[in-house]
Amino acid sequence: MKVGVIMGSKSDLPIMQEAVEVLKSFSIPYEVQIVSAHRTPEWMVEYAKTAIDRGVKVIIAGAGGAAHLPGMTASLTVLPVIGVPIKSSNSIDGWDSILSILQMPNGIPVATVALNAAKNAGLLAVQILSVQDKTIQNNLIAFRENQTKQVLQNNKNI
Amino acid sequence: MKVGVIMGSKSDLPIMQEAVEVLKSFSIPYEVQIVSAHRTPEWMVEYAKTAIDRGVKVIIAGAGGAAHLPGMTASLTVLPVIGVPIKSSNSIDGWDSILSILQMPNGIPVATVALNAAKNAGLLAVQILSVQDKTIQNNLIAFRENQTKQVLQNNKNI
Amino acid sequence: MKVGVIMGSKSDLPIMQEAVEVLKSFSIPYEVQIVSAHRTPEWMVEYAKTAIDRGVKVIIAGAGGAAHLPGMTASLTVLPVIGVPIKSSNSIDGWDSILSILQMPNGIPVATVALNAAKNAGLLAVQILSVQDKTIQNNLIAFRENQTKQVLQNNKNI
Amino acid sequence: MKVGVIMGSKSDLPIMQEAVEVLKSFSIPYEVQIVSAHRTPEWMVEYAKTAIDRGVKVIIAGAGGAAHLPGMTASLTVLPVIGVPIKSSNSIDGWDSILSILQMPNGIPVATVALNAAKNAGLLAVQILSVQDKTIQNNLIAFRENQTKQVLQNNKNI
Amino acid sequence: MKVGVIMGSKSDLPIMQEAVEVLKSFSIPYEVQIVSAHRTPEWMVEYAKTAIDRGVKVIIAGAGGAAHLPGMTASLTVLPVIGVPIKSSNSIDGWDSILSILQMPNGIPVATVALNAAKNAGLLAVQILSVQDKTIQNNLIAFRENQTKQVLQNNKNI
Amino acid sequence: MKVGVIMGSKSDLPIMQEAVEVLKSFSIPYEVQIVSAHRTPEWMVEYAKTAIDRGVKVIIAGAGGAAHLPGMTASLTVLPVIGVPIKSSNSIDGWDSILSILQMPNGIPVATVALNAAKNAGLLAVQILSVQDKTIQNNLIAFRENQTKQVLQNNKNI
Amino acid sequence: MKVGVIMGSKSDLPIMQEAVEVLKSFSIPYEVQIVSAHRTPEWMVEYAKTAIDRGVKVIIAGAGGAAHLPGMTASLTVLPVIGVPIKSSNSIDGWDSILSILQMPNGIPVATVALNAAKNAGLLAVQILSVQDKTIQNNLIAFRENQTKQVLQNNKNI
Amino acid sequence: MKVGVIMGSKSDLPIMQEAVEVLKSFSIPYEVQIVSAHRTPEWMVEYAKTAIDRGVKVIIAGAGGAAHLPGMTASLTVLPVIGVPIKSSNSIDGWDSILSILQMPNGIPVATVALNAAKNAGLLAVQILSVQDKTIQNNLIAFRENQTKQVLQNNKNI
Fold it and tell me: Could you report the predicted ipTM of this complex, rounded to two decimals?
């Protein structure tokens, strides 16, 4: 049971690392790869088509600008693909990244999260894996309770 | 194993019905409810907090305008929540629906699909359920192959 | 007679403090709380549903990104709720904050002010309280006259 | 105790009438006037400066395009002013109406509601009046309960 | 023969000064005033209504955010009013400033220039004055020729 | 003393005709021409460079999409050029028309009016001509007074 | 010497047909295919990778929404690819189509034309072919002269 | 065989230099000129109309704000014109630059690349020249292979 974390460029790594940290904290195995839709299209096809056989259960794909990686990966596998729109240096305030990941045609969905929200992509992957795994689900419940406590603590301290 | 399909208003039903049709075609059990974040907030809390116990595995939530239903539902359960931004009559070309579903803060993700893309929300729910279910996964693969065939057939006929 | 000032995150405090300063300057009692719609939904329900009984007359709620706090609070009380869209770090130039606060459906209004305009939220709360209180109204008139004088003075000095 | 309902043009009346209907249903006295910021600026000044003396407690102002009426009225009185951005024929999808009402400078707030949301403007005016009037507050609570019931009924009927 | 240069706030002066520099360079008399539509509405009315009698021929008005000064001034005089949308600190990337100046209703035009383009506002004022003044027109022609020469010179030097 | 009314395409005529009607109603001579920046660039150069000699005092130029006609005309003459952004069939909700007319670089201003606001372009041309012509100025004052009366009359009739 | 015209869906054909008509009118051979990036990704790879060997010189690719076809095709061949953003039913006013075609990363350009501008895509293909072919270049010059004449004729007839 | 690289202002040179570097690396001859549509319109006409005779095969034109240079150049020659929207200091986040280059009317296409993507403009020019030149095409294939290798190498190193 593994999560595949891919991104279009080395420069996306600092943001995508937040997804990895989440997976680590839930002890979910993962693999991290740079897969550029436009500069390594055949590697992308290979990656996506072999993912199920490698034991990947969910794919998290981050990209910016005309961000085709999440949607193209989704078109090449039936695994759920989570798209992270990245506000990269060549992006127009993130609008291009968001729209080219979110607005997929009927038939091939991408589970899109907020701009730069790799942490939430990681959490969503964990939630998807928790659907059939009570241990992960309980870990998520604990995570949420802790998160709630921190806000309530912040509230006490103001 | 059940998918919960909820929407903010009766007027969202024609669009959300497309998600239901997908679930039916994959023989996935489902429940359909109108749950308004703003007009029935306590019903929303109840719905979300009891979903796991009712056997719901994935929630699909559609809403338009200041669309708080998907994000609020997600905050009340650790089940994966798929958000469908609806271009309702009170929406500004759909931008409000998209941004208030997509831009969730760290900690509470919503798996957002394209504007009005209830069909893709249904497919994404099926893909999430397929993660641990080979039969559903095979059905998805067959669905995709059929979809591909239709495009290739359309191509032959032009 | 009290104004409730709430915000989705500790990081919103520097901006929301401007609302507090206005209330102080008009000698209006207030309470300040961190209430996260997504990380403390039950605390939000409790806060909103008990506000009237605590003597709160107006609520000022600030949030950024998919900003659900003002609208959800408004759905849980009949007190007037003033929404402050905050251009937080996870916001897309503030558009998401504005649209998810402003575009409330019929039935549940939020009195939205400009992006980051916590000062104006404070003033609007004072104006609402002044509707039945001549002293506050006179203080507002004096505030406005002073404001006018400052501009006219600036004009003399250029 | 009266609500002033003003609008920039006769053509705004069908939308602004929804505010009037709300006021009627809560038995709140009101006055309706056409006050164009640009074509009758002196009438606007007179209207706003005499509103308090006429017993007006809240002003609802609707306008479209470069919508200056709500903000200018707010600058001429300390009464709370609710702004209704109208998607008139000369508006760019409503963006101009929204931004020129919402984005008021510090010192002069306008309580902005959603695009074309005159009904919510009426409700917000009632909520403001209810701050010191238990009868109106109870009527609002009843209105909300009824609204909730209708959604729950719709839910039963699907 | 005089150009009136007004702005909503002292903080607009660094930008509006560019209009003044243009007027100086063409030896056009001018007056500079801070006139806030929202904080000094009566001073604005007085300024605009007495402009013709003071010998003002063209008004340049700069403002940001919900920028009502150019349009309101235009509604109070038949002099041509040039609007300069300013990207002030409370503006949403300038969109609010542009739309609330540009999108005036039929009957009251504002001659809008580009965001922060006070220099062009100055040049447009000069062009308007040149319509009946051959000397100014010749100075403009010389200005343009010089401008052309500089670009051609830059081209030679690359 | 003449106003030149030009437009990029025959299909712009219904909108630009509103400018012509204004000029007629003020008894201002005018000429109407189709001048396409992209399909007749040399005719555009000729038109703009000979305008002063033909007695043209102000040019009104309407265009849609990548609307280059107003700015290019302005670059070829020192006459004031009024730009009318037209929401033509190939325009993206008018945004392209507005931005490519409004956002002129320093040195070459275009006096931009609202989307499709050819009537206001006509009025602005009249206002520019009135700067040195008391008769036209008085006609404008009468036009404004009449406009004001109509709104006040509409107000009486509601 | 052939132009490949591809599109993501049968429903794009009415618009893409305009490109075909241009090619016909210049007697340029062409092939037309439906190639969906998301529903037939492998057919897309095959199409793009064999295009040079089939004698294709330029590819015109039209798509809407999250429009990945032009960019992905460009990544799979060194032939120039012209992208036509289509305002399809699932597009948000065309913004998604434009941004996901235009904003390609460094290394893989797509020659993007205006929204729905298949005619211009056809002309651009012809212009590219004319670079080394005097006959086509002369035909283009004749086409332009005729286009100019039509505008001048329209001008005479108003 | 030459590529013409032009730009509206000296300040565009740092970005446009990236196009030049690409041309150099493919050993394609080029010329670089500053040609301002608005400040040197006649030089622009001359440049564009003589380009074919000077042996220019493709023109790359960069400009920002109301960016008329690419479209006007395209209207004056049948050579393919590649437009580079530049996010210059007077641009509104690049939207004005993009829309005034991209949204050309039928009849006069501009091959638009991404915001600031002068490198891609250079590559597109090389691709256009490669249509009839196997050596350049082979160089492009080698460039792409190298680009792919770098991404795969980056992937190995993470």
Answer: 0.97
